[in-house]
Amino acid sequence: MAKTPPRTSGRTGRLLLVAATLTALAAVPAAAAVQTEPVPVQTKERSAAAPSHSGGPRNVAERVAHFYAAYVDVANDSGDSGDDTAATELRKFYLTSELRSRLAKWEQQNEADGVLMAQDVPTAWKVTPGDSGMGHTWSTVRLTWGSGQDRTYTYIAVQSDLATRKISDIKSKY
């Protein structure tokens, strides 16, 4: 024969029923609030990681990229002020003395900036590492001119010395 659970008194049962009802009523607004809040939607922008860049001082192509980034910034900032101090310091740090001498001659003959191989300042740059051999490595620098559909590109071949990581030659790629 099965046992039946003991009965509680009427008063105790009503108290339990009231307590359970109050607990349930308190939970309803909380559950409703959770359900009525908008669910965040993952968009491409939100789910994509923030752009980042990393590198190291031994990576020669990175150094070429750093040089062109800083050089283009300086050229854009100096505008018509004629102050070449920052550009000169960048050249001293990143370029060999022999290249600086060759660039000075090229610039006199061409009346243009030898690093950019142009009279104007590009709107963007991109560096792609290339082949290495015999103590040197080559990078291709793509300079962007203009914007939108009027955009054009020039390509520069940049040679760096692997031992010093200094840029030792700059010439037109094509």
List the helices and strands and how they pair.
Layout: H1 10-36, H2 44-47, H3 60-78, H4 85-94, H5 97-110, E1 124-133, E2 136-145, E3 152-161, E4 167-172
Antiparallel strand pairs: 1-2, 2-3, 3-4
Helix pairs in contact: 3-4
Short key terms for the protein model shown above:
174 residues, four-stranded antiparallel beta sheet, 5 helices, alpha+beta, globular
What is the H/E string?
HHHHHEEEE
Beta content:
15-25%
Number of E-state strands: 4
Give the CA-CA distance, first to last residue.
Answer: 100 Å
**Uncertain runs with pLDDT below 50, 5 residues or more?**
11-36
Q: Helices and strands: which structural class? A: alpha+beta
Strand order of the largest sheet: 1-2-3-4
Instruction: From the alpha carbons, calculate the radius of gyration and give it in angstroms.
Output: 34 Å
Helix fraction?
Answer: 40-55%
Q: How would you explain this protein's 3D organization?
A:
With 174 residues, this protein is of the alpha+beta class. It is built from 5 helices and 4 strands. Strands 1-2-3-4 form a 4-stranded antiparallel sheet, covered by helices on one side. Strand 1 (124-133) and strand 2 (136-145) form a beta hairpin. Helix 3 runs antiparallel to helix 4 (85-94). The termini are far apart. The relative contact order is 0.11.
Structure in a nutshell:
This protein has 174 residues and is an alpha+beta fold. It has helices at 10-36, 44-47, 60-78, 85-94, 97-110, and strands at 124-133, 136-145, 152-161, 167-172. Strand 1 and strand 2 form a beta hairpin.
